[in-house]
Amino acid sequence: MDCHLDIFFLEAVLNGILLAGLLALLALGLNLIFGVIDVVWICYAELVMVGMYGIHHAYKAGVPFPVAALIGIVLIALAGAALHHLVIRPVLDSAPINQLLVTGGVLFLLQAAATMAFGIDFKNLGIRLGSLGFAGMSFSWSRVITFVVALASMLALWLFLSRTYIGTAIRAIAQDRQIMPLMGVDSRRVYLITSAIGGGLAGLAAALMVLQYDIYPQIGLQFGPLIFMICVLGGLGNMLGGFIAAFIIGQFIAIGGSCMATEWGYATAFLFFMVAIFIRPQGLFAAKS
Amino acid sequence: MNFSHAKLCAGAVACAVTLAVAPVSADVKIGVIYDYTGPFAAGGSKAAGIGNKIAIDMINEKGGVEGHKIVPIYADAQSKTDVAINEAERLLNDAKVDLIMGVYSSAHCVPMAAKVDAAKKFMWANVCVASAVLKDKNLQYVFRPQVHSDQFGEASCTFIAENAKSKLKKEVKDVKVAIIHEDGPYGVGVAMGNEAKCKELGMQIAHKEGYAATATDLTALVTKLRRAQPDIILHTGYNPDITLFLRQSKEAGLRFDALIGHGAGYGQIDKLIETFKDDVNLFYNVDPVAAQLLDAKTLKPGLGDLTAEMVKRYKAESGAQEVPPHTSMGFNQAWVFLTDVLPRAIKKHGGFDPEALRKAALETDIPEGGTIQGYGVKFFPAGSKMAGQNERSSPVVMQYVKGETKIAWPASLKTIDAVLPLPKGHAYAR
Questions:
Q1: Would you call A135 an interface residue with chain B, using a CB distance cutoff of 8 Å?
Q2: Which of A235, B108, B324, B362 is most buried, by CB atoms within 10 Å?
Q3: Nearest to residue B266, comparing CAs of B286, B290, B247?
């Protein structure tokens, strides 16, 4: 343990907050889907990967980046709806393990398909946004933008769920999946819309990640375990809990990595997760069931 | 003995004589393992696999080895250690191959070599470099003509020491290096070599740290490097960790006099340029040399033509313009086996079972200049600290100059006077 409380330490803390923005955005979509449909999309990070490839191809074909990003978001929103319609809906009443296995199958299918379609090379857009420097510290603009967009997405989703009719229906279904259909709510439509929104959030994450990371078929494996850990820590299905958990994990990675070796930052994050789940198996921010 | 008995005996003798003098036509089955998919594929494994295949194809076009056709069975380790081990077991036990060849990742190589040796099967390691594959293991049936990681670490430190005064205008003792590496056997092995040699030469180790190659964020590491302010960064990694590090370093304003990579992701210059453009200009890479960079006149006659053929076939097969060092590694080691070890095993030791191959490998004695990568081949015998390792292998320090690869070290092979430190205006220059 070698902590220097200097400007570089502060930089590490702020970098942890910026990283948490991306992780929070990734957790948001997954939590929304689980909270409403009660199915864990193990393949969520692979949808992000497909979105990254879509944006890459659109951009390299000459489409301006904002439009390419929009295409990516729409593409993955449609993919999310299709995933629900074709894969999830048939197993909605199956045991949770079957639902996990079927989305796990989609994970491997998407990875293999991406390898076949796009090859093994690492791809990137080549867009450089530079960095923001102040007080001797330096931060990537792409991460700052990601952080701001993640906060805005959280706010927009909250407004949508609390101020719109369909948002209210989504919240109602999330509270009681058995009763609401008896009261006239079309649960199939709500599930489809929720899946599309969850997919759209994955597409949005993809649009921000292409500015920071290389694209390759296995990138989902880099983020998948971390996202699930955050969702479970925050209380699976609890969007606000997941958001806060992302910032806790981000700080473990940043401060742990700053005071110890980088890999210890991840190790301490997972250690904290294990201890927290021993104490509160339902997650830190979930009500006890 | 009546007539018919005599005829029968004569016939049997004739058959036996015929069988004894007839060419043996059994195929030599080789299990070739590389990562053709997954992150390692683009980090050089596929390039090495193609090089290996070219060598086998060329040998088969000449009729095989001593009348035996080479039958390769290619297996994809998918950049996963468990898959690599399972594939090795499948090839040995189900496909009944005569030997295992190839292997890119040291993380695969370390457990695989131990398993193959314990089963008394033969393995010829072409690319993986971790010293830990063989060091203090006393393996009997595993041989590696390739350079090992201790040598990688030593090469970069020696290069810095030789250039400190003239280029950096510093005494060696005043040079600060940072050693960063992925935390698998390959990264750890090279970093240990770096640390031992740089310390021995009197340099300061400003920072040393490992990280997981799958890390999603390396900003904490970059921040620590900014605090430590090393003159030189010695980096060992795969992809995508190398690109993540370089991207986050630039954004965070990390500056240094030089960056020396050690193979893997740094061996793929065309990919690095595609991603970082001029930002990677003048970076260094330690690796066994890409054969096409050597002056053919320094090699055994005919090896220049062999290299040219390898380059021609690689470009045709991959569509790439730049031929990475990994292609030479895959080709060269396979070529040494097929043209030196295997013929001797068949002719002198009666076949190509593990024992015959082991004896033939231990008799290998190729002098310097006898392979397309310049180094010779002679293996440390059983009982020595590095049993099975080529004692004549050596890496070079290469520098990327405007997309071209030049040799900066050792002096006997160099094709450029090293550009050090990074000139003003470079993205990472101080």
A1: no
A2: B108
A3: B286
Q: Does residue A268 sit at the B interface (CB-CB below 8 Å)?
A: no
Considering chain A, what percentage of its residues have pLDDT values greater than 70?
99
Q: How would residue B191 be classed by pLDDT, with cut points 50, 70 and 90? A: very high
The residue behind tokens 């960064």 is: B233
Q: Residue A127 falls within a domain, yes or no? A: no
Residue type for position A163: R
Q: Would an 8 Å CB–CB cutoff place B355 in contact with chain A?
A: no
Locate B350 and state its tokens.
């009666």
Q: Scanning every residue of chain A, which has its alpha carbon at the shortest distance from the alpha carbon of B225?
A: A8
Which pLDDT value is given to residue A288? 53
Asked if B244 lies within 8 A of A226 by C-beta distance, the reply is no
The verdict on residue A124 lying in a domain is: no
Q: Give me the pLDDT at residue B21, please.
A: 44
Structural domain range at position A45: 7-118+132-279
Residue ranges covered by each domain of chain B: 28-147+295-362, 150-287+396-409
Contact B42 A6 (CB under 8 A): no
* CATH level 2 (architecture), domain B28-147+295-362: 3-Layer(aba) Sandwich (3.40)
- The residue type at A99: Q
Residue A37 belongs to domain with CATH number: 1.10.3470
Which DSSP category does A260 fall into? S
Answer whether A8 sits within 8 Å of B210, measured CB to CB: no
Choose from B183, B219, B239 for mutation: most chain A CBs within 10 A.
Answer: B219
Cβ of residue A209 closer than 8 Å to a chain B Cβ = no
Tell me the per-residue pLDDT of B77-93, one tens digit each, with 9 for 90 and over. Answer: 999 999 999 999 999 99
Which chain A positions have a beta carbon within 8 Å of B209's beta carbon?
261-262
Domain count for chain A, please give it: 1
A162 CB burial (10 A radius; 0-12, 13-18, 19+): exposed
Q: Which of A181-185, B90-94, B299-303 has the lowest mean pLDDT?
A: A181-185
Helix or strand (DSSP H, E) at B106: helix B106-118
A125 within domain boundaries: no
Chain A contact for B217 (CB, 8 A cutoff): yes
Question: What CATH architecture is B150-287+396-409?
Answer: 3-Layer(aba) Sandwich (3.40)
Q: What is the pLDDT of residue B9?
A: 46
What is the reported pTM?
0.85
A213 Cβ under 8 Å from any chain B Cβ: yes
For the cut 60, the answer to whether the pLDDT of residue B57 exceeds it is yes
Give the tens place of pLDDT for each residue, B367-380: 999 999 999 999 99
Q: How far from A31 is each of A38, A228, A248, B173, CA to CA, in Å?
A: 9, 9, 17, 55
Is B189 within 8 Å of chain A by CB?
Answer: no
